[in-house]
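Box 3.1 A note on notation
Throughout this textbook, protein chains are presented in two layers. The first layer is the amino acid sequence; the second is a token string describing backbone geometry. Keep the layers aligned when reading.
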Amino acid sequence: MTSFVIEADGGSRGNPGPAGYGAVVKDAVDGQVLVEIAEAIGTQTNNVAEYRGLIAGLRLLLDLAGDGAVVEARMDSKLVIEQMAGRWKIKNEGLRPLALEAAALARRLKVTWQWIPREKNKDADRLANEAMDAAAKGRPWRLGASSAEPRGSGGGSGTSSTRLSGSSIAESSGSRDAGRSGFPSAGGSSHQAATSGSVTDPGVPAEDLLLFDPADLSRDSTDSTVSPEEKTPAAATSPGTGWRGATTVATSLLLLRHGETPLSVERRFSGLGDPELTPNGIAQAEAAAARLSRKPYNLQVIVSSPLRRARVTAEIVAAKAGLEVIVEEGLRETDFGDWEGYTFTEIQRRWPDELAAWLADPSAAPPGGESFGTVAERVEATRDLLLERYEGKTVLVVSHVTPIKMLLRLALLAPLAALYRMHLDLAALSLVEYYADGPAVVKAFNDTSHLH
């Protein structure tokens, strides 16, 4: 029996032109709207906006009910419904990454696809138009009144946001982490609370102060005798999401790429092979260790990929910080299969068709290897494990290009295709902060100031 209904829509005023999408998740029995989302997405085509609406709706349901939920996905776009049902081929290569992302999300659910006429898709259509109207006035889309009550209220400064029925979400999601859904809390943004006030510490280099909010610097994260309530007095009084208390303490994942190896010097594909660090790679790791062992970092946990180049980098930092290295299998690099050890040019000559498919489609895998779609599932599961296990702590994650890009992509709610638009240097540092009553926030990206 179908438990939920997703209704999604998107539009463009010009095709391409100013575009936006809307999506709602409803109870299949009584039609109650459980959660809504809308976003203006700049200049796009109708079809792109429609796919973005579908992806947003699928994500909302996964956050609401988890994997395996039974849902009927309804849209008035015949193209999207028929392509997702597998009855029409995708001829527009620009839509393929979006279709693949939607399909990957749908595989985690039990979905039936249903085309509906536009007049029966009024809720999603209204949301898409609200987002476009707001963008046309230079304002973000704001939460407003709705006929489905009760509603949780929230705030946001971006162009996308959600409305949700707090009681329904609480019953449906059980112990799921509100912070990982990206929903704003009823009490406002914990990120804003964390950045109020000011902290001056002459012992902290200016470039490192930029990585953290002032509230993060004001707590002694190494003091295990301080209770969570003492660290975050606002948690006792500030309203939260309805099923989890508000907090101003972030779980910080500092993402460090390993140091240089012989394969990286020659720009060769390096996946599950196990090269050692070069002398320069060791020096890079030592520079990272010197930086991370001082304020404001206060590392509490170090986790690493099992591969030697990451593990040795992590051990160098751990020795300086006085910590142990915990190995997490999910942080390993992509398996590049037959391409391991080859340069891009060599692969282009030997496997031209396979390389073209891999560059165009995140679900395509190198011969004998692993697709980015598969890596995404592995990394997302590892992220959830880390956030649950080390909540409120500062965790150094030592890994590789693909897993780090995946963590950044997930924090930004970006599609898989965003992997091709990011560059990470060796021994570069990035930072994502996760709040239990708010969204993930990318605070730094590809920072190599410690190497200069």
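The longest helix spans residues 46-65. The radius of gyration is 23 Å.
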